[in-house]
Write a structure and sequence with these properties.
alpha/beta, five-stranded parallel beta sheet, 5 strands, 40% helix
Length: 133
Amino acid sequence: MNLNINGNGLAGLKVMVIDDSKTIRRTAETLLKKEGCDVLTAVDGFEALAKISDQKPAIIFVDIMMPRLDGYQTCALIKNNPQFRGTPVIMLSSKDGLFDKARGRIVGAEQYLTKPFTRDELLGAIHRHVVTV
């Protein structure tokens, strides 16, 4: 992956944000675009899976509580696909319980961020799982 990393710039890095909350999607998109990321958004797991297949994001942030296909199911489907098994998935949730974090690990999530997340938490996850400087 060819990333232009000058300072914290993440120019051209494809990041997907899956959340049924427009506010959360917009917040994450704004923060990430300021860093130069190419941000893809989806309202739920069904919409996301089609986009992931077409766009092949480098990292995926997924909300746990969503209609139709929740974050755990979405993560499991991503991780069960050999093409995307190596794509880091970061769970987003307003719940901070041990059970939720454990369940996220079981379905293959690399990390768990509690909402509301900060810019530093989002960028920290990207640097930890995608950008190896």
